Automatic annotation (TrEMBL), chain A:
Molecular function in Gene Ontology: ATP binding; ATP hydrolysis activity
The keyword Phosphoprotein is annotated on this UniProt entry: no
A UniProt-annotated Pfam family: ABC_tran
Family label: Belongs to the ABC transporter superfamily.
Protein name: Unannotated protein
Listed PROSITE patterns: ABC_TRANSPORTER_1 (PS00211), ABC_TRANSPORTER_2 (PS50893)
Keyword ATP-binding: yes
Ranges for domain ABC transporter: 50-275
UniProt keyword list: ATP-binding, Nucleotide-binding, Transport
Gene3D superfamilies: P-loop containing nucleotide triphosphate hydrolases
UniProtKB/TrEMBL annotation, chain B:
A GO CC annotation given for this chain: plasma membrane
Keyword Transmembrane helix: yes
Transmembrane segments: 17-35, 76-98, 119-144, 156-181, 188-207, 240-258
GO MF, one annotated term: ABC-type transporter activity
PANTHER family hit by this protein: INTEGRAL MEMBRANE PROTEIN-RELATED, MEMBRANE PROTEIN
Species classification: unclassified sequences, metagenomes, ecological metagenomes
Pfam families (alphabetical): ABC2_membrane_2 (PF12679)
Protein name: Unannotated protein
Entry keyword set: Membrane, Transmembrane, Transmembrane helix
């Protein structure tokens, strides 16, 4: 295992940020180099569409974000992850000009958002996290109003998007379910075919079928060269959409990383069922295996990296079934943010290793 | 100015507007309707008013209650009309940006490619036109009504009195805009605006009786609007200037405050 301060593709300025996180990375440096090389190739010659440099916002007591630095390239879907209250919404609202910037800067399409003219937002689609629409209007009236405010008619595009999302535009918004209101939010973000999409928890309330259509919309926008910044508190949501993710916690950037690398590095929880109780102790000595717990005929542990040794050992003991849990965002955190303080608040008797 | 936003503001509030306009017209019509009987028994009423406590007479400036303009001043312009127009103005001003923010609709509105300046100025124009519309509705009602019941007041003076009250409403609307832009909470902005309006009203009404209140009368917006008795004397340019100028300063401060505001979630 190697201990490093920051992931490799984070700008040097991040490493000097006020963040107190220490990150444990267990991927081999060689593998990481390959990832970095690919990112650089993908972006060579392109200006980043969205660029945050030490972006900081203080407000209220203990709220806000500090020293966020990352870039989103044209044609990239970038996941912005973190638990609720981590500061994702604050950062996104700074990008669209709803909040002032305390320190640092952010540029969109090369223009500093702090001084950008309002016209820059012609090129931005924004879906707020706490979506609030004008309930007294119908969906059609609302979208037409927004189109007029954007200075052009978008009737055909609105009709097309509504049909794809199975959205009834004739009903008053206050009569629509949360999910249907969210669809209107999605339509208004996409209807002017923006080069920048800033989407705060976009799939909240959408049913799986609509979610798939939404993913298709994201994919089309990406193929047309849009830069898409997508926040979520659920890793699985951005899992198959995003190439890279930034993870924030407590207002600080924890890591900016390729999602595949991140998952490889993540701890996975594995349940092993045996015919009779087995001695859990030898499991703790297997490489990459931690948090071994046994209860009755079941052994539960977490694994990073390859699972080969674990399965070999379990097979020798006559394992009946194996269940692997997809890494949750929490577990990704545990993999990344293991400064020691994270484990301290877990009951000691749960941890055998 | 953003036409879509302008028409939307009116459309959203047409019911409220219609009832305010209807109320104003009804109040004016009822007062005009009862005026002939007041005039008929003017002697008796004059005696009755003579018997009122001095305090009461001075508060409501009832010196010539039975004359047409005197009656309209007491019944409409000393109390009802200014307070109604202040209420309308404050509620429009206080809601303009703060209601969008409080409901969360500001997030999409302000992420549109239009400046905050255009948005708040459009809403100011919408508010000013609403007050002007109410002023015209009242003026027309009064012109027709005074002709019907034979009150001798020039149409220009009826407009002068209504317009002074509308300007007073606009001044308090501008305070609504300012508080709304500063705190982002429509309830607080509205409460503060109404409280200031009522305070000025009380100070103005009691000014003849309380020396300390009288001392501030020159800077009391009610004095600017009504002190010159526009129903009798028409519009006084200096008073209009004070009302409009103060409104303009407060509106400009609201624009600055709104431009700097962090929109809350």
């Amino acid at each position: 295992m190697t201990l490093r301060v920051m992931s490799r593709d984070v700008r040097p300025s991040m490493a000097l940020s006020g963040s107190s996180y220490r990150l444990v990375m267990d991927a081999s440096p060689a593998a990481n180099d390959v990832e970095v090389a690919r990112d650089v190739n993908a972006s060579s010659g392109d200006q980043p569409s969205i660029s945050l440099r030490g972006l900081t916002k203080y407000y209220g007591r203990d709220r806000g974000v500090e020293d966020l630095t990352f870039e989103v390239m044209p044609g990239e879907v970038f996941g912005f992850l973190g638990p609720n209250g981590a500061g994702k919404t604050t950062a996104l609202r700074m990008l669209v000009g709803l909040l002032g910037i305390t320190r640092g800067s952010a540029t969109i399409l090369g223009t500093d958002v702090a001084t950008a003219p309002a016209s820059l937002r012609h090129r931005i689609g924004y879906l707020p996290g706490a979506l609030a629409l004008y309930g007294n209007l119908t969906g059609a009236e609302y979208l037409r109003f927004l189109a007029r405010m954007r200075g052009r008619r978008m009737d055909r595009r609105i009709a097309e998007l509504s049909e794809r999302l199975n959205l009834d535009l004739t009903r008053h918004i206050h009569d629509l379910s949360k999910g249907n209101q969210q669809k209107i939010g999605v339509v208004q973000a996409f209807m002017h075919s923006p080069e920048i999409l800033i989407l705060d928890e976009p799939t909240a309330g959408l049913d799986p079928i609509v979610q798939r259509e939404f993913e298709a919309l994201i994919d089309e926008a990406r193929q047309q060269g849009a830069a898409i910044l997508l926040s979520s508190h659920v890793l699985s949501e951005v899992d198959h959409l995003a190439g890279r993710v930034a993870i924030v916690d407590g207002g600080h950037l924890v890591v900016v990383e390729d999602i595949a690398t991140l998952k490889r590095r993540a701890l996975r929880t594995i349940d092993l069922d045996f015919a009779q109780p087995v001695d859990a102790e030898p499991f703790t000595r297997l490489p990459g295996v931690t948090d071994v717990r046994s209860r009755g005929c079941q052994v539960t542990c977490t694994v990073t990296g390859a699972e080969t040794d674990l399965f070999r050992h379990a097979a020798g003991l006559g394992v009946l079934s194996v269940r692997t849990h997809e890494p949750s965002l929490d577990q990704v955190f545990f993999a990344l943010v293991r400064g020691g303080d994270r484990h301290a608040d877990r009951p000691a008797d749960e941890i055998v290793a | 100015m953003l036409t879509a936003l302008l028409t939307k503001s009116w459309r959203d509030h047409w019911r409220g507007l219609a009832s305010w306009a209807g109320g104003l017209i009804a109040i004016a019509a009822i007062q005009l309707w009862v005026y002939p009987s007041i005039r008929q028994s003017s002697e008796g009423i004059s005696q009755m008013i003579e018997g009122y406590p001095e305090v009461f007479k001075e508060m409501f400036r009832m010196t010539d209650y039975t004359s047409g303009p005197g009656f309209l001043n007491v019944e409409l312009f000393s109390f009802m009309v200014p307070l109604i127009l202040i209420a309308v103005g404050v509620s429009w001003g206080a809601a303009a940006t703060a209601d969008e923010e409080h409901r969360g609709t500001a997030d999409i509105l302000l992420a549109l490619p239009v400046s905050r300046f255009s948005i708040i100025v459009t809403k100011m124009i919408a508010t000013a036109l609403v007050l002007l519309g109410l002023c015209l509705a009242l003026t027309i009602t009064l012109i027709i009504g005074t002709r019907l019941v034979d009150i001798d007041v020039a149409a220009a003076n009826l407009f002068a009195a209504s317009f002074s009250c509308a300007l007073l409403g606009m001044l308090y609307a501008s305070l609504g805009f300012l508080f709304g832009a500063l705190v982002g909470r429509p309830g607080i902005a509205m409460g503060a605006g109404i409280a200031l309006g009522l305070a000025a009203f009380v100070f103005y009404s009691l000014a003849p009786l309380v020396d300390t209140f009288d001392a501030i009368t020159p800077v009391n917006p009610f004095q600017w609007a009504l002190g010159n008795d526009p129903l009798v004397n028409g519009l006084a340019l200096s008073n209009i200037g004070w009302l409009a100028g103060t409104s303009a300063v407060v509106l400009a401060a609201s624009v600055v405050a709104f431009n700097r505001r962090d929109i809350s979630t």
